[in-house]
Specification:
2 copies of one chain form a homodimer. Chain A is of the alpha+beta class and about 140 residues long. Chain A is built from 3 helices and 8 strands. The first copy, chain A, has a 4-stranded mixed β-sheet, covered by helices on one side. The longest helix of chain A is centred in the middle third of the chain and has 10 residues. Strand 5 of chain A pairs antiparallel with strand 7 of chain B.
Chain lengths: ~140, ~140
């Protein structure tokens, strides 16, 4: 299939948005390699991210554009935008300050499944800021 | 909201599957930190992953369970399963051999948007194996 080969082996950036107009996006700390969060972008969020150099997502809970850090100040400066083989997922390499998760942790992935359990999580990180002080009520 | 707090600050593993019964899953090389791929799991794939210690996904293109590497041999030994704050995304830390992407690269993220462009990709990796030799026709 020529189309498939173009998508996988070509240099045209043709991000594939799903039926809701969204594409999965992962943010990774460009320096440490830590995966910080997973979110979605719509076309406009992607365009704004490319234009401004700062990550803008589409919040599925609030159903609106969301410039990361607009409220908390914890923005993401985009160093590189990678796309996967079938172009339905983006990976942003970002430069960040301390505290990327709204719960107070550096990464949203602050818990892991306990060894030998299928139901119990354990915390693998410490909070790096106090979200109650950061987010206005 | 107590429910929200339990999900975000608790130790009960309650992965949130979407309306299609799927949860986003990211695989990251446990040793190098490289993000290898993004995929989906359904409940059964997650259970099999936990039980066997090897990553099993749900292939949305083939609409079936897919043990990573069942055809290519490039399996993923799961070292740790992380979950994000709202428990709608998983992050697997995996031990892998060379070549995790079916196109021939170590990671599915082998291209990046060119600086200053919104349309043109550049390759940022070299192939590590020949997929034509690996996949049976």
């Amino acid at each position: 299939m020529a189309a498939k080969q173009n998508i996988e082996e070509g240099t045209n950036f043709t991000p594939k948005f799903d039926s809701n107009g969204l594409i999965r996006t992962i943010a990774q700390d460009a320096k440490t390699g830590q995966v910080l969060m997973a979110a979605f972008m719509n076309r406009q969020a992607l365009d704004l991210t490319i234009q401004t150099g700062f990550a803008t997502y589409f919040s599925t809970s609030r159903q609106k554009l969301w410039k990361k850090g607009e409220e908390s100040g914890h923005t993401q400066k985009v160093e590189q935008i990678l796309v996967d083989c079938d172009q339905d997922c983006l990976l942003l390499k970002v430069t960040v300050d301390a505290g990327q998760c709204h719960v107070g942790y550096q990464s949203c992935f602050y818990r892991a499944l306990k060894k030998g359990s299928s139901k119990e999580l354990e915390f693998i990180a410490e909070k790096v800021y106090n979200p109650e002080k950061t987010y206005k009520k």
